[in-house]
Each structure stands twice: as structure tokens, then as C-alpha cells.
Fold this sequence. Notes:
Largest sheet: 5 strands, antiparallel
Number of strands: 13
Order of helices and strands: EHEHEHEHHEHEEHEEEEHEEHH
Distance between the termini: 27 Å
Oligomer: single chain
Strand order of the largest sheet: 11-10-9-12-13
Radius of gyration: 20 Å
Structural class: alpha+beta
Strand content: 15-25%
Amino acid sequence: MYKNQPIITLYLCIFVKPMNGILVVNHFLKSEKFEELHSHLRNAAANMGVSLLQKTNLELASETPECDFVLFWDKDVNLAKRLENAGLPVFNSARSIALCDDKAKTLLALEGIVPQPETLIAPLAFGKADYSAFVDAAIERLGLPLVFKECFGSFGEQVFLRKSREEILAGINGRPFLLQKFVEGSRGEDTRIEVIGGRAVCAMRRRNADDFRSNITNGGTAEAYTPTAEEAALAVKACEALGLSFGGVDILNNGSVCEVNSNAHIINIMRATGIDLAPMIFEEIEKQIK
């Protein structure tokens, strides 16, 4: 597949008919991390002869652009769907983004397709609700500690390791959540595999000695990793089930899929592996729209 060492691929391809695209980002998320990512995507496009104009979801709330494709690096699903309704090819699709953004929807879309940690989705409630019966049933089935995940969140945020019934109940705040069996053998460790166009193109091992979450944002480290054929096939299968043209799949040490990201932060894996995913993404888009 590829060697477990930094690789930098030089893309000199210029498309016969230059593509004209829009990069959609969130107007309300402004940080050095996001700016670096957006700049990298624009520069990669320019190096390949692709015109990529950056627009925020606020700007596009009142306009519909004219372009060959939309690279949607945001989670504003309603906007993504509106652009699709206007006839624009959107990558990833509104459906795929919605499935990945909501951890409960991800779980259900992958159920029976790939292994996942045993998980219970909290029942829908309106207003303040007493979840003690659900929590008691979850503890009996999943054991303690268990993982408390709000259904929406990125970079390991809104994900907690709860050691008692009281901690679980105290963390319920009215937002949708799920309770998941804790995989002790993967404490602070996982594998991120990036898939583009139905191929596992690179991977990294993430480790965090100080947190049960492996996310680099939470202090984790990463190194290049060569996945097994089984791990690569698992990542590809997950992305296919979610309809992703590209995505990052997180696999725990027991071989179960933890999460799937529709617009993963590709800078971290580039630093760990030396592999730049941006040109591959534009090549996949060009292949799909030509």
C-alpha cells in the first residue's frame, strides 16, 4: 500500500479544463487552526490549476454561487442541501455530512456493516427530563466506567469518561447524547485512516498518555502508520456506507469503528505522515464531476 515513512508527493497535474470551485467554511469558527487548513486547501487547489474561492456559510445564506463544484468544509447541512438543490455537486454531500455530524446517526448507519463499541442512544425527551432509568439500564449493560458522548461535537469535545451513576446524570444537559462501552484496551489510543475515492490512502496512530481520548487537540501525539489489510477494508466499508467521497475513520485497538469524520483536519495527518491529502481530494472531485 505505502511505506511507514514520510512521503511527499509532488502534483504537477493541470486539468485540461480548469475547475472552478467554492470552498465553504463556517463564518463563526475563526482560529489559527482553521485558517491554516483553509489556506492549505486554497494553495493546493491553485497549485493544481483549480480556481477555489472561499465563501462562508453566512455569505452563502443569501446567495447561490456559480461554480463547477462545492468543497464543503463545514457542518451547515441545510446550506449544503440547498446548494445541492440548486444543482451544484457538493463534496461531501449534505446527507454524508449529516450522518457523520450526529454520532447517533453514524452509529445507526454503520450498524451491522462494521463493528462498533456497544452503544445505547438516549431516548428523546422534551425539556428537562429524568434519565435515571435509562442510565441505570446502561450501567447494567455496559458497565462502568462508560463513555458519555453528546451527539454533536468535534476534536474530542463533548466526549467524557464517566465513572459513576452520579457523574453521568450530572452531565446530562438537554442535548442529545449516547452512552458507550469503554474499550479499556484502547485508552488514549486509536488509528485514523483517511479514505479518498474508495481507497485507504494514509493512516496515523494517535496516542495520549494523559487522556482517554487520543485527539491531538487534547494533547495527543501522532505517527505514521501502515494499517493492516483488514483495517483498511474496514475504513473503506465505513466510508462507503456513509456515502463519503473522502473521510477519516477512527478505529480502536479492538478493531471497532469509533467515529467517522466527513471533513477531518487533514493538517495533522500530513504532519505525521508527510502525505498531503488535498491534491487527492481535488483529483477525486474532478473524477466525479467530469
